[in-house]
Amino acid sequence: MAIPRPASDRPFGENARLVGRVAALWRYPVKSMAAEELGAVDVSWHGLAGDRRWAFIRDGQARSGTPWLSISRRPDMVHYRPWFAKPDRPDASRTMVCSPSGQAFDVVDPALASELGGGLRVIKLDRGIFDAMPLSVITTQSVAGIGELIGAELDARRFRPNLLIEAVGPAAFPEDAWVGHVLRVGRMRMRVDARDKRCGVVDVDPTTALRDPAVLRAVAHHRTVCLGVYGSTVEPGHVDVGDPVFIDT
Q1: Backbone angles phi, psi at 176, to 5 degrees
Q2: What is the pTM of this model?
């Protein structure tokens, strides 16, 4: 008798097909600070547990559409590394930040805001502080494709995704074709809502904080400024690195 596959390995619709596997998972406890790499994560209606719940806001920007401190303005933000004191309960945990000097701060410590610069304060939103939608996805093929255009090997973290997917098949930039469809990623289902319009953040190397303007130029010239996709949760669930990704066509 055949052994049934685990639920996470079975398609979720009659027309479902395998499009890839999860290559990496990242969340960003503090917006614009360094990524936290994960082996597994729970995904709720508000994205990955603990993702982008905190941000530093600039005084005098109340009417700005993007009032928070960002990597495009402060590339050195990628050298501040946040983590959760209770990693198994990120949404209920104290959020800590390690500065480039190695000093640890609670994210709400005024000393951290002072170190980042004058006129800053920190805010928290339990539903997350997202530019567009709570889930961001990019494929290894898209990262490699932009790298080939500029003659450099690029770190996927430059594009600040939540999910890095290694797609199946020969198609370049395969996630473009997923817009308007539902994916099942592990035990989570998400709708792919839109292509991800990029900004100067992609020019910043996530390790060195050095800028390479060739990256955004290539995305703008060859990709109409879009790379990767945004999505929203259809059914909350658990995701592990290595999980299959199915699309319901």
Answers
A1: -55, -35
A2: 0.92
